[in-house]
Write a structure and sequence with these properties.
4 copies of one chain form a homotetramer.
Chain A (H helix, E strand, L loop, with lengths): L9 E2 L5 E5 L14 E7 L4 H17 L5 E7 L10 H10 L6 E4 L9 H5 L4 E2 L1 E5 L4 E7 L4 H13 L4 H5 L15 E2 L4 E2 L1
């Protein structure tokens, strides 16, 4: 399996959101220390997200113990903002029966790309992100990730034993995946 | 195969639309006499439509000679109207690479159910409709229709030889499928 | 849809078999006049047959009225004869829960290709054959046929009205599909 | 995820085979110390094996570094022995393009169940087994295992750091999964 998708030992930047669905209060990565975090960044009108990423995320949410694996969605709208607002997202989440918490990436007044998406240098949607028990970014991948690869990565992070010091510590830096291809949507996803 | 899905010898009511995508001018059933017409009624946020009905419709549009089988979509919004307007539908059709003509069922000021949907007594989305060469309604089914059944129905209608008189004639009446179950969405589709 | 797969107005040669499963007595095409006949020629160790053709054949057997569409399998072993004998086929049919009649194409002492397969000039397995109500060969295709195309073809043949004279008549000739590619197995099937 | 499928800290019994395919010499578990071992026990005419287990095994063989994850098949024939001999298995492996080493579980003169299958108390086919770097049995499951669960289990075992003493050591005992349901084949697999 490709090692290049693993970004080691960089602290996962905190989420910057303007709202949440399916949770009484906002979720922060800081609050999830001690758990493996799967974050699925998507757009509700991105075919690759709807057909593959979102069902996979729901499946993981259904299968894992929430005390060990936290699953969150992040609605990172970087195009067609006018038809993918919170009201549309709520209908989408309702019709597709999504039950995991979904954050709305905070829109950026200067760019089409919202804040968290920019901080993480995401290349588009869907993007799959894994954060380990100590809050470090361990997987950051644009496009579809197979169940097998995602399972291996989750299993690896679950197996790591973590000391109290490690849970408390952490430097601040952001991931460095740069886009090297053209913008637009295809079968895999929508690229910035 | 169940015969009950076939409604014989009722003239298919004309479409009542407020706009079209993927065609320079509105499509009428009257203009399609001599062809078998497959009409897929859907909502862009109906999971059963997005996952099964729309890909099937695009597949049929790609496979058949347009001079023999006309394929049209009909956006029959009966819920969440505020997030499934023309602007949202255009983004949806663009992102999903839909190329067949899509009519927008004309909204009804008195009801949530739009005009064509009401005229056809559709039970929800997706609904698959087949109109024969003479403009009669021959299949009217709510929920998923297998490729095999839909193929058999199209093949049957294609095989029918039609005289000029039959092409010209036609009585006016509407189909009579009454809803016998509860409203709401499930794996199959969204019911009125 | 490609017309080239349709061989029109050639009488389907009678089956030459050495045994049958799932039927108390041998099936002949002559006994099926008045019905559309779907024949699936396969080998029990051909991956394309096992993964696609056989499930499709069972599905058609389950869905259609046997008085209108007769479904039969034909075990056309042209390679590895020693491990695909009747005893192995019986286990295969039992384990895969096949319920349609399966003829065993009669082995040929001079060739590896059995008699019916040779008479029909089949290119390999799976091969899908449709015979119309009057006993004429109407579809003869090597490799996978989609449910949609197969449905259209069955629907077309079902729609044909047939006179008693036509049911009684028929010239004798065989189909003429010649192999134009290399022998061997691939994802689609196994070629002679 | 169910913990009950994990059998911890029992040494995986050595394989007892009468032959191998796809390897110049027999494979022993002892020779694989330091690697995670995935063993897929199957029968070539078991539908659940052919449709799910074998493609999954081939996929894992293709995706993982063979120095970290060793993949082996085990042909555990417990029924219809006369049509699933070595000659038939060779044709099956050839036609399905299987490339991982496949051991033939040694037939038992007293029972229909072969030696390794009996030693492991397998309930039927397919059975998926994971052995850790120190040779201990860690997953032992009858029926289909999802890519997600299997990935998590492999990832967990890959993450374990192992000392030289642990690699050298090991007690001898066998797993204890007892069959609690009826024999026969269904969609999941074939039960003893």
């Amino acid at each position: 399996m490709k090692k290049s998708t693993t970004v080691e030992k960089i602290k996962a930047p905190e989420l910057i959101t303007s709202g949440w669905l399916n949770t009484p209060q906002p979720v922060t990565l800081a609050s999830l220390r001690g758990k493996v975090v799967l974050m699925h960044a998507f757009q509700m009108l991105c075919p690759g997200c709807v057909q593959q990423g979102i069902p996979q995320t729901q499946r993981i949410f259904d299968e894992f113990d929430p005390d060990r694996v936290a699953v969150i969605g992040l609605h990172t709208v970087f195009e067609h903002h006018e038809v993918m607002g919170r009201d549309a997202l709520e209908v989408f989440a309702y019709e597709y029966r999504l039950r995991f918490p979904i954050g709305i990436d905070k829109p950026n007044e200067q760019h089409s790309i919202p804040h968290t998406m920019m901080t993480y240098h995401m290349q588009g949607t869907p993007t799959t992100i894994l954060v380990d028990k100590t809050g470090h970014l361990r997987l950051h991948k644009f496009g579809h990730v197979s169940d097998l690869l995602l399972g291996v990565s989750i299993g690896t992070l679950l197996a790591e034993e973590v000391s109290d010091e490690e849970l408390a510590a952490g430097s601040t830096d952001s991931a460095g995946n740069e886009s090297d291809t053209q913008p637009g949507c295809d079968a895999d996803g929508c690229r910035v």
